[in-house]
C-alpha cells in the first residue's frame, strides 16, 4: 500500500570509495555540494552526507561538515542527514562531533558487524553515546539496520529508553558481513516493524535496483547513490548520483507512486 509519497535519499559520496575505483567521485566541498544539488533536482529529498578532507580522505571534522553544509544550502533545499558512522575505525568522539551542528537527521547504526574485510564497530557504548548526542542536539535519528539482530537490538534499546524518540528506519542490505539484499530479507525486516513505522531500504551494489522496485511496491522509501552502488547497470558505471535518482523517479512514475516533495517528506518523517 503505497500510501505515503516516496522519499528518495541520496548518499552522494560515502567513506569507502576512492577516485581510483570511481573517478567521478565527488570529493571537494564544491563537488559534494554540486552532486547533492543535482540529486535534489532529480528528485531526492534527503542527502545522506559524508565529507572528505583536503586529501580526499573521509573525515568527521566539524569544520568540513560546516563548509559542505553551507555550500549545499546555498544550492538547494533538502533534508540533510549527517553520517555518524564515518569510516570504519573512526574514533567514537569524531563520529559524534558533527551532530553538534544540528543537522535535520543523523544516522545511528544498531550493531557491530564485519564490513568487508574490516569490522564496523558499534558496541552498546558506541550506540548509547551517539544516541545521547543525537538526543541532546534534538536531531532526528535514522536507525541503520544492516542485519536482523540489529532490529532486535533496536527494540531492546527502545525498551530501555536509550534511543531518540524521533527516528526513521533504514535497512542497509548487501554489505558483505551484513544481511544480503535478497527480497525475502527486506520482507522479514519490514514485517518486524511496528505498524505505521516508515522505512527506507538502501541496497548495496547489485541489490540496489531490485530492492528499489520492491520498496516502491511495498510502500517503503528508497536510498540510491554512489556510496551504496556506483554502477548504473552491470559493467556500466553510473554517470552521477543524479542519474541513479532519475531512474528511481521513472520507476516510481510507472508504478503510480508519487515522489515526495520536500514538504511532504518532512511531514511523513515528522521533521
Ligand atoms: N562507512 C560505513 C562504515 C553511516 O553513514 O551511518 C558506515 C556508514 C554508516 O556509512
Ligand atoms: Zn553512510
The DSSP helix count reads 9
Q: Could you describe the largest sheet, including whether it forms a barrel?
A: 8 strands, parallel, barrel
Determine the mean pLDDT. 97
CATH-derived topology: TIM Barrel
Describe the structure.
- By secondary structure, this protein is of the alpha/beta class.
- It contains nine helices and 14 strands.
- The strands form four sheets. Strands 1-2-5-6-9-10-11-12 form an eight-stranded parallel barrel, surrounded by seven helices.
- A hairpin with a 2-residue loop joins β7 (113-115) and β8.
- α1 packs across α2 (62-75) and α1 (29-42) runs parallel beside α8.
- The chain is globular.
- The model has no long low-confidence stretch (mean pLDDT 97).
- The protein binds (5S)-5-amino-3-OXO-hexanoic acid and zinc ion.
Protein topology:
Blueprint lengths: L7 E4 L17 H14 L3 E4 L1 E2 L5 E2 L2 H14 L3 E4 L9 H5 L8 E5 L3 E3 L2 E3 L3 H13 L3 E6 L2 H12 L7 E7 L9 H10 L6 E5 L4 H11 L2 E3 L7 E3 L2 E2 L3 H14 L7 H8 L2
Parallel strand pairs: 1-2, 1-12, 2-5, 5-6, 6-9, 9-10, 10-11, 11-12
Antiparallel strand pairs: 3-4, 7-8, 13-14
Helix pairs in contact: 1-2, 1-8
Bound molecules: (5S)-5-amino-3-OXO-hexanoic acid and zinc ion.
